[in-house]
């Protein structure tokens, strides 16, 4: 994962905010997560993702998509859906998913 946030894009675009608390059972999680990161890159309209996790276990992943069609392609991908089922069965104590349309975006990088 990058140590810098994803760049600001020209709006409008979509953000999928996935907030999780994981269980103790994490067998296969890293491999599946790596596969999902590779798979989503093949979705036309995928712009990138940011991820953060605190020491207490709260994780936040924000995926950015150019349009609703790209987001739908990701949501309906069969391999992604299988990973979601495994997540509910094994890896997540709880999660929330928020989908937002970004109407304003800007960034800053110190020279």
From TrEMBL:
Q: Which residues form the signal peptide?
A: none
Superkingdom of origin organism: Bacteria
User: Start and end of every ABM domain?
Assistant: 13-86
Question: Record's InterPro entries?
Answer: ABM_dom, Dimeric_a/b-barrel, Jasmonate_Hydroxylase-like
Q: PANTHER family, per this entry?
A: ABM DOMAIN-CONTAINING PROTEIN, BLL5343 PROTEIN
**What protein name is recorded for this chain?**
ABM domain-containing protein
């Amino acid at each position: 994962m990058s140590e810098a946030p994803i760049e600001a894009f020209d709006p409008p675009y979509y953000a999928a905010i996935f907030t999780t608390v994981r269980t103790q059972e994490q067998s296969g999680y890293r491999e599946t997560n790596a596969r999902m990161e590779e798979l989503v890159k093949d979705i036309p309209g995928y712009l990138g993702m940011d991820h953060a996790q605190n020491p207490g276990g709260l994780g936040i992943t924000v995926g950015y998509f150019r349009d609703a069609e790209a987001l739908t392609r990701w949501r309906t991908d069969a391999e992604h859906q299988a990973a979601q089922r495994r997540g509910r069965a094994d890896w997540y104590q709880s999660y929330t998913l928020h989908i937002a349309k970004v109407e304003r975006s800007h960034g800053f990088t110190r020279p």
